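The authors assume throughout that readers already know how a fold can be written as discrete tokens. For illustration, here is how one protein appears when written out as sequence plus structure tokens.
>
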Amino acid sequence: MEAMVYDVISWIGLAICIGAFFIKDVFWLRLATLVGCALMFVYYLFIAIPQGVISNLLVLLINAYYLGLFAWQRHKTNQLMAAEPDVETTVTAEPLQVTTTRVNPDAVTAA
């Protein structure tokens, strides 16, 4: 019974990892890959396959790093927006670039 639970975990992880190839948004792609590799990591740990454990752990850590970097940059952008409300900020991903431009407060109309 226990082995069947881990088999189901591996199939779900595999489906998520394969499904991640169809995701275009970088944030959701990394999140899906992180979840899928975490499930596969648990499976390979259970069946004691070192190559599977190491490879999934590395991919999991790489995606966790970039998700953390994304969250940190988003936090910094929000701080910038709070500090300077008359600045328009555009953030793009991969490679991440932040562009700021001054907005004329007199030209902005209330919606």
